[in-house]
Amino acid sequence: MAAGTCRRQRRNLDLIGLASKIADAVTNIDAGRKGFATRGKEQEGRISYEIGIDMASSAFEEAQTSADPHALVLAEYAFILQELQLCNEADKETVNSLTHAIQGFDDAFLALPVVEDSVIYQGVDKVFPHRNIYRVGGFPKDAFHIACIAHRTRIQNILRTPGVDPIEKKLLKQRLANLATAQGGYAAKQKKALAAQKP
Questions:
Q1: 99-153 tens-digit pLDDT
Q2: Fewer Cβ neighbours under 10 Å: the N or C end of the chain?
């Protein structure tokens, strides 16, 4: 088996493991929140909540260390996907917000292989207007950037909500930092793709 194939398989397994850790973390956080609201289950709920927050923080820090835009966005995607699975269907506003975020990241994942191909991405650059509102750091504000920007706004809105637990605020700030790192890493890929243009 070629070394490149082994590396890809290892990376895929690492990404699957990361997504699994995030899903387990969100399940614990959700169980903890439900425990808070159940008489006699408050202590058990607090323990589950704190375990979930710790697990999520560790997974998001792992993704941050990789500085890989795909891993960073996958961690966030896994988090909100699990939140949607556990969300009360009657909570239409939250369901709609999470659904829009997931759709945005679905589009972001489609952009990742395109930016790796300099010939194709040079075409992308030509079809995006060159006015600042359509650019991030001079590069096309494509689906990847749009998903990250929109989701950063969602997280910032949660951070502004009164009564958010301090340990959860710390996790939210980590998630914000991860999205900024993802965009930075993606911009580096855009720069590389567009640097290959001939004058």
A1: 999 999 999 999 999 999 999 999 999 999 999 999 999 999 999 999 999 999 9
A2: C
Q: How far is CA 49 from CA 36, 45, 81, 89, 150, in A?
A: 9, 6, 18, 22, 26
Instruction: Calculate the alpha carbon distances from 157 to 13, 16, 119, 154, 192 in Å.
Output: 33, 29, 38, 5, 33
Query: Are residues 159 and 173 in contact, defined by beta-carbon separation less than 8 angstroms?
Result: yes
Q: Domain tally for the chain?
A: 1
Q: Other C-beta atoms within 10 Å of 177: how many?
A: 14
Q: What's the predicted TM-score (pTM) here?
A: 0.89
What element of type H or E holds 18? helix 3-36
Locus of tokens 């949660």? 158
For residue 135, what are the β-bridge partners? 140
Q: Give the tokens for residue 135.
A: 């650019």
**Which DSSP letter does residue 140 get?**
E
Find tokens 């929109």 and name the residue. Answer: 150
Query: DSSP 3-state assignment of 153?
Result: helix
For 82-137, the DSSP string reads HHHHHS-TT-HHHHHHHHHHHHHHHHHHHHHHHHT-HHHHHHHHHHS--SGGGEET
Residue pair 194/122 in contact by the 8 Å Cβ criterion: yes
Tens-digit pLDDT profile for residues 171-199: 999 999 999 999 999 999 999 999 976 55
